[in-house]
Amino acid sequence: MSEELTGTIVPLVTPFDKEEKFDAGGMTGLIDYIIDQGADGIMATGLTGEGPLLSPDELPGNLWKPCMCWGICP
Taking the C-alpha atoms of 61, 62, 64 and 65 in order, what is their torsion angle to the nearest 10 degrees? Predict the structure, then answer.
């Protein structure tokens, strides 16, 4: 059985703070804004190749914590 993707799925940049650490608060604010604008889904960490910059502590759990409230995590 296959599912058809529909709606608007927005790719997100990954916010970092001044110390170049993942900014969970920034991600939460970004997700709030995108969802409030009517997006049907998000695609985090896939837009600008920032994955190699994230430490093991930031992936995968800490990165997805801001997404949990909206039920949009994999």
Answer: 110
Q: Show the CA angle centred on residue 24, arms to residues 6 and 8, nearest 5°.
A: 10
CB distance 11 to 46 below 8 Å: yes
Condensed to tens digits (0 to 9), the pLDDT of residues 44-58 reads 766 677 767 777 776
3-state secondary structure 10-45: EECCCCECCCCCECHHHHHHHHHHHHHCCCCEEECC
Q: Give the predicted TM-score (pTM) of the model.
A: 0.67
Distance of CA 60 to the CA centre of its chain: 11
CA gap 27, 64 in Å, rounded: 9
User: What count of residues does the chain have?
Assistant: 74
Token pair, residue 42, equals: 């998000």
Distance of CA 7 to the CA centre of its chain: 17
d(CA 28, CA 36): 12
